[in-house]
Task: inverse folding
């Protein structure tokens, strides 16, 4: 299933394709591995035959690299210990794994560096005071739930002796650079929850569609430079170096933080590239995203639609947010995010009319019962892709969702792709994944693609699962509409 146009560019769909490719790159590493992930669990099982000959898990693979003399530097995101306790525990877990890795592999001094970094931008005193009652309730609830050894070794810094701070920003990127020659970049973190196969034949709450690129060339050196300076940039120590192919979102603490919850946006290149690409688009904009919540992105799409009556739009996104679909969340952040997405979709749909197709993937089988995990009578496939393709000459693949947080706050990284043969390879991989068959020419050409997809996806919505073409059915924007809640005065960048 893997699309490979040359040895220098691979399109990897889902962990079934992506993880073996990264395992092979790590096994071939000679000098160093520099990586940044939101989550990296060294207990994640190895999938490629070569890696399984070394051991069972990523812990074994990294230990082998250290014994071969490879230097490893891994930066994972830390999180607010009160507001995001479970994610904070995962970060602490990675640090403990790193300690065990040092004990087992006995690397040379400086050869292994694992950094769990809590973004330096803390909420100012004024928003901290305003949110203190809510934060204290959450803090007390966490202290009741988490005690003893779990608090000491997993939920580190969940401190019962002082009022909690408020840390609203995190590092959300997912990339690795091997020997300054190979770049692995996209939306896929490393833990077993992210594992899925290209046929998504799993329980709905275990599905996970994602996209990674593995490429060789100057982009790797640029990504290495980004990783080398990232912590200084987000700490407010230095300004970032311009990079032509690695596009970023980066923020830092404000010089005067007192009245602000938000950080200072240092770079919003990913948002800027989207808006410029919308303006240039001639025939087709193809988007795959976990969230479409940004009013800036929605307005940019609407402007492009009104300026060009020949422009079509394809948007693939999950049926519902994962915390709503799989966890039954009714928390205020989920409600606010759903309200922002409903408004963004309505704004874009109004501008494009029938030239816009919004779709969500489902499995080709009947669901046993109707639930939040079901769409069009079938179990959903969860979409975590972060992809933009415009016509046949521009694409972005990275870690950023189309929400305010990814556009302005969190640390994000994406690969800009402008070589036509590489854009073509990306489109081929995406299309083959969603349709699972050879498509007619009408379904490929940028100026005829959207009407064909629109008709076929609409037909899928009323077909029996076994008679559908591929995975896509019409997105249902009014699903769980009763949960939507507007919060006047609250920035959309929170969600």
Result:
């Amino acid at each position: 299933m893997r699309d490979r146009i040359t040895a220098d560019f691979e399109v990897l769909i889902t962990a079934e394709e992506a993880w073996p490719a990264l395992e092979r790159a790590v096994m071939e590493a000679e000098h160093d591995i520099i990586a940044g992930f939101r989550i990296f669990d060294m207990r994640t099982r190895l999938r490629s035959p070569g890696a399984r000959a070394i051991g069972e898990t990523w812990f074994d693979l990294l230990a082998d690299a250290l014994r071969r003399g490879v230097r490893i530097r891994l930066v994972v995101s830390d999180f607010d210990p009160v507001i995001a306790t479970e994610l904070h525990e995962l970060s602490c877990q990675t640090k403990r794994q790193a300690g065990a890795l040092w004990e087992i592999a006995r690397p040379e001094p400086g050869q292994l560096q694992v950094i769990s970094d809590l973004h330096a931008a803390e909420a100012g005193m004024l928003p901290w005071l305003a949110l203190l009652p809510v934060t204290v309730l959450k803090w007390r609830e966490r202290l009741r739930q988490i005690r003893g050894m779990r608090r000491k070794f997993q939920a580190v810094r969940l401190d019962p002796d002082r009022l909690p701070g408020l840390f609203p920003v995190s590092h959300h990127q997912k990339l690795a650079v091997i020997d300054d020659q190979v770049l692995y970049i996209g939306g896929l973190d490393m833990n077993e929850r992210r594992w899925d196969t290209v046929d998504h034949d799993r329980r709905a709450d275990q599905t996970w569609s994602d996209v990674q690129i593995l490429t060789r060339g100057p982009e790797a050196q640029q990504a290495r430079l980004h990783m080398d300076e990232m912590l200084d940039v987000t700490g407010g120590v230095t300004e970032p170096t311009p990079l032509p192919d690695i596009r970023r979102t980066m923020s830092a603490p404000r010089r005067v933080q007192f009245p602000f919850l938000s950080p200072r946006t240092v770079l919003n290149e990913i948002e800027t590239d989207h808006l410029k690409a919308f303006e240039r688009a001639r025939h087709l904009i193809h988007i795959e995203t976990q969230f479409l919540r940004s009013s800036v992105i929605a307005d940019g799409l609407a402007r492009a639609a009104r300026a060009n009556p020949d422009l079509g739009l394809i948007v693939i996104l999950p049926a519902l947010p994962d915390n709503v679909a799989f966890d039954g969340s009714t928390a205020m952040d989920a409600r606010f995010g759903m309200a922002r997405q409903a408004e963004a979709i309505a704004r874009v749909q109004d501008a494009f009319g029938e030239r816009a197709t919004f779709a969500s993937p489902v499995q080709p089988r009947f669901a046993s019962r109707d639930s939040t995990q079901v769409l069009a009578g079938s179990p959903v496939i969860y979409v975590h892709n972060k992809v933009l393709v415009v016509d046949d000459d521009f694409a972005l693949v990275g870690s950023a969702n189309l929400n305010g947080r990814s556009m302005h706050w969190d640390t994000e990284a994406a690969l800009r792709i402008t070589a036509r043969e590489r854009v073509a390879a990306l489109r081929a991989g995406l299309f083959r994944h969603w349709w699972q068959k050879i498509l007619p020419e009408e379904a490929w050409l940028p100026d005829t693609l959207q009407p064909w997809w629109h008709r076929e996806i609409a037909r899928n919505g009323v077909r029996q699962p076994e008679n559908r073409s591929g995975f896509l059915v019409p997105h249902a924007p009014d699903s769980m509409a009763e949960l939507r809640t507007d919060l006047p005065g609250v920035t959309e960048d929170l969600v």
